[in-house]
Amino acid sequence: MEFYVVDSYRELSDKAANIVAEEMFHNKNAVLGLATGSTPEGMYARLVKMYRESKLDFASIVTFNLDEYIGLCPEHPRSYHYYMNRNLFDHVNINAENINIPCCSDGWNSGEICREYDRKIINAGGIDLQLLGLGVNGHIGFNEPGQHLQAQTHLVNLAKETIEANSRFFDTPDEVPRQAITMGVGSIMHSAKILLMASGQNKAPAIRESFSGLVSTKTPASLLQLHRDLILLIDKEAASLLDCVR
Ligand code: F6R
């Protein structure tokens, strides 16, 4: 595992963008697994800047997003489709056909959508670099703590803490989605390389639990300790409860 503790969110965003850019330099056809949420926003802004400065080319890049809410259409300003367009896709030369985000329109068969999503990842040759944020409860994607973790893409009932954490993006509590489709831990763990980012004091307990040496389905991110090529990139607030940093 490569482990970086940086001083600020700005530094975290710069370093994360450099890691993604390096992957893209080495492989023009890289398959990137993308995360949403507030953590990667700064990184996406830097990737857009690099593209504008002609330092990056997205023409042959393929992307798979981790997750999408159930009940929000792609045009909804809080959907992850909308987030990705606003933060990255609208600003770079990515081919729309290479963008994959689980689509959860009403009336669709979620089981079929999930199986198709996994097939697409396999047909693309798997994920070269998977980006991850971290839930306050230790979730990755929307793989929530519980007795079991699911390997494949699946429909999930979001945990109470996740609904609470996500409520900051919505006007009223009733609007916060209760379900999502998420990539499973199998697809995440099969990625050739994983970059986990976390910023802020509120992520410190989840970072401590995830990297304590124990692996538990009660802290899904703890599974990442078993990955051969994990980069853990966190700021000093998120690292503040780790023994090796204190
Ligand atoms: C988002 C995702 C989630 C978030 C996590 C942290 O696609 O899969 O696991 O990465 O909830 O969210 P933020 O960054 O908003 O704290």
Descriptive report:
- The chain has 7 helices and 10 strands.
- The protein has a 7-stranded parallel sheet, with helices on one face. A 3-stranded antiparallel sheet has the order 4-8-7, with helices on one face.
- The two termini are 19 Å apart.
- The chain is globular and about 45 Å long.
- It has 246 residues and is α/β, with parallel strands linked by helices.
- The protein has a single domain, classed as Rossmann fold (3-Layer(aba) Sandwich), CATH 3.40.50.
- Fructose -6-phosphate (F6R) binds at residues 35-39, 66-67, 133-135, 139-142.
Q: What is the count of structural domains?
A: 1
Poorly predicted regions are none
- Specify the oligomeric state: single chain
CATH class: Alpha Beta
Strand order of the largest sheet: 1-10-9-6-2-3-5
Count of individual helical segments = 7
CATH fold topology? Rossmann fold
What kind of sheet is the major sheet? 7 strands, parallel
Radius of gyration, CA atoms, in whole angstroms: 17 Å
* Average pLDDT score: 95
Beta-strand segment tally: 10
| CATH architect. name | 3-Layer(aba) Sandwich
